[in-house]
């Protein structure tokens, strides 16, 4: 399998999953920040 084809498939895979990954990481960051805000000593 040529390198260009692998790269193309890899890019497609990233494009497909990057939106999901972005929203998931964003959600986790917000959860983390809200957790620290909820602590009484923060």
Could you walk me through the main structural features you see in this protein, from its secondary elements to its overall organization?
- With 42 residues, the chain is an all-alpha fold.
- It has one domain.
- It contains one helix and no strands.
- The protein has one helix at residues 3-38.
- The radius of gyration is 18 Å and the shape is rod-shaped.
- The model has no long low-confidence stretch (mean pLDDT 85).
Reading the helices and strands in chain order gives H
Distance between the termini: 54 Å
| Gyration radius from CA atoms, angstroms | 18 Å
Strand content: under 5%
- Total domains: 1
Give the count of helical stretches. Answer: 1
What best-fitting shape do the alpha-carbon axes yield? rod-shaped
**Number of β-strand runs:** 0
Name the poorly predicted regions: none
How much helix is in the residues? over 70%
Taking the sheet with the most strands, its summary is: none
How would you classify the helix and strand content by structural class? mainly alpha
What do the pLDDT scores average to? 85
Topology:
Blueprint (H helix, E strand, L loop, with lengths): L2 H36 L4
In short:
Helices cover 86% and strands 0% of the residues. By secondary structure, the chain is mainly alpha-helical. It starts with a helix and ends with a helix.
């Amino acid at each position: 399998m040529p390198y260009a084809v692998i790269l193309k498939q890899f890019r497609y895979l990233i494009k497909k999953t990057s939106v999901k990954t972005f929203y998931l990481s964003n959600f986790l960051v917000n959860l983390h920040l809200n957790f620290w805000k909820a602590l009484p000593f923060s």
